[in-house]
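User: Before I run my own analysis I want an independent prediction to cross-check against. Here's the chain; please return only the structure tokens and, at the end, one sentence I can use as a sanity check.
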Amino acid sequence: MKRTTLSLIAVATALAAVTGFAALTAPGDPAASAAAPAPQAARLPVERTSLLCPAPSASEIAETLVTSYTPPGTAAAPAPAGGGTAAKPTAVLGIAKNPSAPAGKKAGAPKAPASVTTPGKPVSVATDGAVGHGLTGTATGTLAPGWTVQQTTLVPAGAARGLLGVNCAAPDTDFWFPAASTAKGRADYIHLTNPDDTLAVADIELYGPEGELKTAIPEGVQVPPHATVPVLLGPLLAEGAQENLTAHVTTRTGRVGAALGSAADGVGSDWLAASADPAARVVLPGIPGDATGVRLVAFAPGEADADLKIQLVTANGTIVPTAAESLHVKSGMTASVDLPDLTRGAPAALLLTPTDPKKQVPVVAALRVVRGKGSATEMAFVPAAAPVTDRATVADNRPKGSALTLTAPEAAAQVKVTASAGTEGGSPATRTVSLKAGTTTLLTDLAPKGVKGTYAVTVEPVAGGGPVYAARTLSVTEDGIPMFTVQTLVDDRGTVRVPTARQDLTVLDD
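Assistant: Structure tokens:
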């Protein structure tokens, strides 16, 4: 009998994720492989990141700024197996086609920002007028880990006036948008962008206070390759206008980027980013202290009802707001509650937890926030956020009008906050901020000394602390209107854990 031993010392492992992928090949000694302990998973930088931006605006007087940034500090990916050199890192944004543009009318196209060439240096470009196309982009190599793109649009006048901001997001197959609406005077569009070479088909489900509503697109929305398709929600419903809705976007084939653009006559406009994944404990950070109106919209996607305790996480601690102590959310139905005079001058975060700790029912949620009074109002949205686990970045911060809120709802924490150099000059600055348990901290002095142009802000929790939730508010005043937009910070997934497989195969030959 002849005995042959085949050792797979370290199998090359490729890990695909919505934000990119990392590949690892680890060398080893064949003779020692059988006796060696099982290797631990390694954390490596992603090698490729994809981001998608919706079409900015249909207004001829809109001003859009797109900013691209990769934070420094992530180690380079390993060299390719078998020797050779890694490909040159790139970060490129391209124009997505718009097959929905009216025949005979050429929709405006945004200018793609100049490519990021060095981590730590943001770049941006401005586009004026109506833009009917979205952006699709990919970063590779050392520019991929943490690559961030921010799209900010100012519409100074008209029915859709406002400051609209959105972090361009990774493609996915499942999105939740609580706080959508088809009420009179409201125009809500879901923008779907396909980054791939094949057709994507997306379904849009709408849920009101009485449950799922019948829509006019039972066969789904077709999104051609490298194209963006806006879908107006109002015409989808045959059952009349709905003040409070939850929109659910899934894909039958392919993957898409999804964002909801909303405009309310006389109130303002902004983007609603997708809520964090359904969870029993929900945090909505970044409520401005001068908010004059806050509406909470929640949805329970499972088979059980959710009873939620409402708490406000302020600079001085966690309290129960006087406007509402709890919210009952029926399974498959959208629930809402208005929270007037919620913040009373102090920025805060909303914390939703089960009233009965034994009944952990996952929900999704979002806030519609209004600032100003009378005809001088503006609205923005705050979706439920996930905690920043490793690092998160938001670009397009201005020397004036930028604020960062950091919320530690459970336990004390420390975070490292880094403001980058500006697009036109300056040097980065880093500080460590201590957060008390059950509080929200506001930072308004974010701009480094001597910074020119716009800059990025990166948040990195220090190991050993509790979970941290973060949001950036960007504000401008236009003709006496306090325009603003809020972006929750999403972990950039700049690194991924890559397991190394080890296996011995013994083959017996007679």
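Sanity check: The two ends are 5 Å apart (CA to CA).
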